[in-house]
């Protein structure tokens, strides 16, 4: 039963990843079909992210009241409803309407499951959890490419909607399995809002670093197809498939990092990932055929692989298990602030300056991310040493 519960958590993260790559892979065709500017993808992603920010902030309260299992099932059902709504959209405003339940569902389940795994499983499971999210993001571009080749983008959303609905129903009928793990009750959780979190030394650095990482990841994720079309002259149908390169690199990287994360630790894995990510960005700066850019996006995804799960997994250790529920919820909200405002900003700059500015744009946020993350670990280490010193003095 314990293994079945872990499998269900993994499955829930596949469902979380399924919709995330659909918009970016299909947008070169969607914006033409709906007769809106290419930069309008930023508006849709912004509405989705606002929903995730709201649900992330309240996820801790929802989880305490209803439990992780109920929050997970309802969230997956909400995203399934949103996907079917997208599949029937014939006007741009319809995308905006159904972006709301999509965002609300994604944010709640993301924060709840991340905290659950960070508290009760080893680092390798966090890596593999997000690897399964990558599986979902890899599947969707191929589904969208198939739909664009044989029908319309609406069918791409409809197919993924049926998959999402199937996962939601499976999670619903297996709700009793969640009772097998009682360790969630071991550590009493403290509850505090954003102001309370900001008073904890190191948390502001954590939030800024996570914001910067997710800003870079979301930009690469959402604009990869447009980059290949606008900069490399690739067709929209082929670009939808090429969008999966980033996700392939990330998914393979997270699978492999799961075998070494427990040995190296979260901090070293974040540094290694940043170095690899930087190499991928440099590759995009090379004026070369599309195949070089393809390699670059794979390397960028591979470098991104350990960063997100390791930052989250390190939170209970850095700031205390009793604080992790509230901090991770706020942490996820800061991440979605990055995904809300930064990719749309890139869309506007891309229209004005050209989409070839992507590597420079990504580099700015990667530098901010690693600087703030390192400060987080240093301050957290100092905090923990001070606590240990106070404890020792009390014993003596």
Explain what this protein looks like in three dimensions.
- With 396 residues, the chain is mainly alpha-helical.
- 83% of the residues lie in helices and 0% in strands.
- Helix 2 runs parallel beside helix 6, helix 6 packs antiparallel against helix 10 and helix 9 runs antiparallel to helix 18.
Looking at this protein, list some descriptive labels:
396 residues, mainly alpha, Growth Hormone, Chain: A, disordered C terminus
Backbone shape: globular
Largest sheet descriptor: none
CATH class categorisation: Mainly Alpha
Low-pLDDT stretches are 391-396
CATH superfamily: MFS general substrate transporter like domains
Briefly note the CATH topology name: Growth Hormone, Chain: A
Distance between the termini: 46 Å
SS field, number of helical segments: 18
Rounded to the nearest angstrom, the radius of gyration is 20 Å
List the helices and strands and how they pair.
Elements: H1 2-17, H2 22-33, H3 41-66, H4 68-87, H5 92-120, H6 123-150, H7 153-173, H8 194-198, H9 203-230, H10 236-242, H11 244-257, H12 261-264, H13 266-284, H14 290-304, H15 307-313, H16 315-319, H17 321-353, H18 358-395
Helix pairs in contact: 1-5, 1-6, 1-7, 2-6, 2-9, 2-10, 3-4, 3-5, 3-17, 4-5, 4-7, 5-17, 6-7, 6-10, 6-11, 6-15, 9-10, 9-14, 9-17, 9-18, 11-14, 13-14, 13-15, 13-18
Q: Would you kindly provide a brief summary of this structure?
A:
The chain has 396 residues and is an all-alpha fold.
């Amino acid at each position: 039963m314990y293994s079945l519960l872990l499998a269900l958590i993994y499955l829930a993260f596949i469902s979380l990843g399924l919709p995330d790559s659909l918009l970016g892979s299909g947008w070169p065709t969607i914006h033409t079909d709906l007769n809106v500017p290419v930069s309008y993808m930023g508006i849709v992603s912004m509405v989705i992210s606002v929903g995730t920010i709201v649900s992330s902030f309240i996820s801790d309260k929802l989880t305490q009241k209803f439990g992780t299992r109920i929050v997970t099932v309802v969230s997956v059902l909400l995203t399934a409803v949103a996907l079917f709504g997208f599949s029937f959209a014939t006007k741009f405003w319809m995308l905006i309407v159904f972006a709301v339940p999509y965002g609300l569902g994604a944010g709640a389940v993301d924060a709840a499951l991340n905290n659950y795994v960070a508290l009760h499983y080893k680092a390798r499971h966090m890596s593999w959890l997000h690897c399964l999210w990558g599986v979902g993001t890899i599947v969707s571009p191929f589904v969208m490419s198939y739909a664009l080749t044989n029908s319309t983008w609406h069918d791409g959303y409809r197919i993924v909607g049926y998959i999402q609905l199937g996962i939601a129903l499976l999670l619903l009928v297996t709700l009793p399995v969640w009772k097998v793990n009682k360790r969630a009750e071991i550590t009493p959780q403290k509850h505090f809002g954003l102001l309370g979190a900001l008073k904890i030394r190191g948390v502001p650095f954590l939030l800024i670093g996570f914001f910067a990482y997710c800003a870079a990841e979301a930009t690469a994720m959402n604009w990869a197809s447009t980059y290949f079309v606008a900069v490399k002259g690739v067709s929209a149908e082929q670009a939808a498939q090429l969008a999966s390169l980033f996700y392939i690199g990330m998914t393979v990287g997270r699978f492999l990092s799961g075998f070494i994360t427990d040995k190296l630790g979260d901090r070293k894995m974040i540094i290694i990932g940043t170095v690899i990510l930087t190499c991928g960005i440099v590759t995009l700066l090379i004026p070369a055929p599309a195949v070089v850019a393809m390699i670059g996006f794979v390397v960028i995804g591979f470098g991104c692989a350990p960063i997100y799960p390791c930052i989250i997994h390190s939170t209970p250790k850095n700031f205390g298990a009793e604080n992790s529920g509230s901090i991770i919820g706020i942490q996820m909200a800061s991440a979605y602030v990055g995904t809300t405002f930064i990719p749309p900003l890139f869309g506007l700059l891309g229209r004005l300056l050209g989409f070839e500015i992507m590597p420079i744009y990504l580099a700015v946020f990667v530098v901010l991310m690693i600087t703030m993350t390192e400060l987080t670990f240093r301050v957290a280490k100092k905090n923990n040493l001070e606590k240990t010193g106070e404890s020792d003095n009390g014993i003596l």
